[in-house]
Design brief:
- This protein is of the alpha/beta class and 241 residues long.
- It has one domain: Rossmann fold, CATH 3.40.50.
- 34% of the residues lie in helices and 8% in strands.
- The strands form two sheets. A four-stranded mixed sheet has the order 2-3-5-6, with helices on both faces. The chain has a two-stranded parallel ribbon with strand order 1-4.
- A hairpin with a 4-residue loop joins strand 2 and strand 3.
- Helix 5 runs parallel beside helix 7.
- The chain is elongated and about 70 Å long.
- It starts with 16 loop residues before the first strand and ends with a helix.
């Protein structure tokens, strides 16, 4: 391995280094992307060019919060070009910056009907594809976690688990049901004083998911499995079969 040349920068500059699509610094927003809740259409509108710290990952609220410290640490390393050093931030300043960012940015997310979502996970075309290797009944019987068919499973049982802090309290400023996205667009624009204007887009749509007619795929047994396993989401968000 060749020695690094003096003055070379092993850390991407701020202009080319991003957190990931969860954080948009220009719009001052944090989007908690729960898998299979229409996240692609929103993430595509928030994504900025650059090398992502954690690419293609559905991070929960706490992972985003803690990841901000790592992001700011990386983007402030290797900045000293003079003596004595005057622009390098202390660790306390980096931690304060990450906390300030997390506290002040508008944090939002989307949730989805657990029965429709389970079918969408089963019929998905990306990541772990199960539609051709097992029946829907077998999938429901083995479907314990909300992200267990993703490339980056985080083993949260309920969607609510993405949105809570250590005390179990909701930590986002706003969440919407993906079924009500049109109204959510208006709410988000108003809550951010026009800073974030989302468009109604349809990305990563799978015509095979049949989510609009999800009830047709359920038997009394599979309906019961999902209702018991994801009762936390069903009760908190007020979903019905």
């Amino acid at each position: 391995m060749l020695p690094r040349k003096p003055g070379s920068n092993p850390v991407p500059s701020v202009s080319t280094f991003t957190f990931n699509e969860a954080v948009n610094f220009e719009k001052r927003t944090i989007f908690v992307a729960i898998p299979k809740t229409g996240t692609t259409s929103v993430s595509d509108q928030l994504r900025v060019p650059g090398k992502a710290l954690i690419p293609h990952s559905h991070l929960n609220l706490l992972q985003i919060r803690d990841g901000l410290y790592t992001y700011f640490l990386l983007t402030h390393l290797n900045k000293n070009r003079s003596f004595p050093s005057g622009e390098t931030k202390t660790d306390a300043e980096v931690r304060l910056l990450s906390k300030k960012t997390f506290d002040e940015f508008f944090k939002f997310s989307a949730v989805r009907n657990p029965w429709a979502r389970a079918l969408s996970m089963y019929r998905r075309r990306e990541a772990t594809q199960l539609n051709d290797v097992m029946s829907f009944e077998e999938f429901c019987d083995r479907h314990f976690y909300c992200s267990d068919t993703c490339w980056h499973p985080t083993l949260h049982q309920n969607q609510l688990d993405w949105l809570c802090d250590e005390s179990g309290k909701i930590g986002v400023d706003y969440f919407y049901k993906v079924e009500n996205f049109a109204q959510a667009i208006k709410d988000i624009e108003e809550r951010t004083d026009g800073r974030l204007r989302l468009e109604m887009r349809y990305a990563n749509v799978n015509p095979q998911s049949r989510s609009q007619t999800y009830r047709d795929f359920y038997s009394p047994q599979t309906r019961k499995i999902i209702s018991e396993r994801f009762v936390k989401d069903i009760e908190f968000f007020g979903y019905e079969f």
